[in-house]
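Morning run. Coffee first, then this:
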Amino acid sequence: MRFDPRPGRRLLSLLPLTALLCALSACGPRIAISRAALPCSDLVQGPLAADVAPADLPPDPATVADWQVFGDAQTGRLETSNLYRRAALDVIRRCEARDRAADEQLKAR
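And here it is:
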C-alpha cells in the first residue's frame, strides 16, 4: 500500500466527471407528479350519508290532532334530510375545488 501525500488529488480528478453527470441529469425528462385519485364522495360519512328515518305514523284510530302532529314531525324530518343533503354536497364541492387547485399547482411546475 502506497501513501499518497496529496489525498485531495484523487477527489479533484473526479470533479469533471461529476460535473458532466450533473449537467446530463438536468437535461432529462421532467418527472410527472400526480395526486392520489381519492373520490370526494368518500369524505361524506356518518349521518350525512345515512337515511333520515320517517316520523312514526299516528295510532289507529287517529284524530285530526294526531295527524297534525305526524305532519309536523314528518316535515321536521324532511328539513333534517335536506340539511344533510346540502352539507354533503358542500363537502363534495369543496373537495373538488381542492383537487382542482392541486392540479393547477402541479401543472404550474
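DSSP finds two helices and no strands in the chain. Good start to the day.
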